[in-house]
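Subject: sequence -> structure tokens, single chain

Hey, anyone have a minute? Need the predicted structure for the following. Not urgent.
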Amino acid sequence: MIRFERFLSRLHFKKIALVYIVAAVLAALGCAIAVGTLYRDRLSFAWQYFRLDRAVESGDTAALQSGIDRLAASGDVVDVLLLDANNQVLYSAKQSVYAGGQLNLSRVEGGGSYLVSDRSPQVVFRYVRKADFLLQSVFAFDWGDILEEYGDDAFYEGGFSQKNVCLLNYISDRDSGNKLYIISSPSAVPGGKTALKITACLAMLFFMIYWVLLALWTYQNAAKCRLHAPFWGIAVLLTNLVGVLIYQFYKHGNATCSHCGASQSRSHRYCAVCGTELGEACRACGLPLSARDHYCPRCGTKKNGGEE
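Reply:
Had a minute. Here:
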């Protein structure tokens, strides 16, 4: 334990903290650039989706038209369809098989949340809400689970494995009754999962380093103040910032010797470790005085030695 405290006493935590911050910032920037580069097209898709959603809410026809085309050009979009209240297709961004005429969707028998259209019997749609749709379209983390779920729901159907599963989301205009169907077939970004895993591992590593450094700094500081360093070090290791706050409140509630740095009761007139006088005391009765005291609160003696 003595060797450990000697080792800690030689550490300069201000320099260590500076190196840590610089390394953490550089690592964060590197990961952000790598992930942003790999997911550039998918992030563009998410941004175009939000812009299109706002255009639908505002009723801006010009922005709606251009927003549909921009969204269809990003990500793994199969098509973006504009339908009226009677499910008549008014516009198809990619002129797919769903363009023109009326588009009716029906549930797959026994398929739960899966839908199918008579326009393309080989395609099955999985309807998902906005948040899940964006997550799947950008990251495609659970896409394999969705395909497996469809297989579990429709395993008894003949030829179900030959069907393509697509994600379906809609944005509706309550005033006009028009709605947009966004059809997507997500695919994993090459190297994307690896980059995200590395980012998560680095974030966890830097968080653990921060946690341990905070505990070691508290241990070092408590040892200098002649407090019970192992107790405070373990307390901060277990509670992090809560333990640091409690330690600081406890330390600042005591008097600190200007000569050796030992922390002790404010009632002490002399340091219990090195014997140095702690602050100023009343010349008449010896009561320790604070910097704000002009008179002794016990006997009324003036701080400079005179009496009134």
